[in-house]
Design goal:
alpha/beta; 4-stranded mixed beta sheet; about 280 residues; disordered N terminus; 5-stranded mixed beta sheet
Amino acid sequence: MSIILIRRNIIILIAQLLFLCSCGTQHLVVVSQQDTAIPVKGKVAEIVERGTILIGTTGDYRPLSFCEADGTYWGFGIEMANEIAKRIGVGAEFRKTSWPTLTADVLAEPQKFDLAIGGITITDARRKTMLMSEGYLANGKTILCRASEADRYKSLADIDKSEVRVMVNPGGLNEKFANENLTHAVIIVHPKNEEIPSLIAEGEADVMITEITEAPYYVQTDTRLAAPLLNAPFNHGEIGVLMQKGQEDLLQLVNATIRQMKADGSLRKLHEKYGLVYAF
């Protein structure tokens, strides 16, 4: 029997066979406060045997998931992924996906990665075809604009005007929100999400549709930008972990990790590190 013991801040991974029983080989994960036993089979057993969990992430969404020129990934979501890997007792390998290809990449056969993380909003549409974890970060649509024009935008109606140029990245919920809610504004689709804030600051467009998770980072790092509606998002949601159906064992383990991080305070500390609002 192989046993992974996962408690508050320690992980004991026993990867060798301890003993054999007549009923065959069995794996157990014991998680956190209540020491709840979670059978390790299916996808989790595959990950344990591989020794690495494969993480799909866009790498274009500061401060949740960003890939530097040298291939180094950092961000809130990256730390969440590393924590999931740590509590399983394996390493984490990050693989690039994109917002337009996210669903196809998650559903691909053979699988490109075990789960996707980093700014992925929980939606009913995604839950129809894939598995989504419990939320670990509050979210909502807001805008970035030039600081010199912050007083210009007090509502969605102020943005939805023919003279306002709105820039979004393709294939994600930002583009979907813009198309559904802005019928008069000029919508510009730019392929690289991470470039849009600078383009707004330089006057290539007037407004970026973004999230309350992303906007504060750019306001703090570029004084040319403002997020005047940050405290009044257009909608509310939560960000979670996305994976294929049929991986309920991995979903159970990810949810147990999220619950444990909420209980032991480590999730709140992670929010504080990145200047994000803790809403759990």
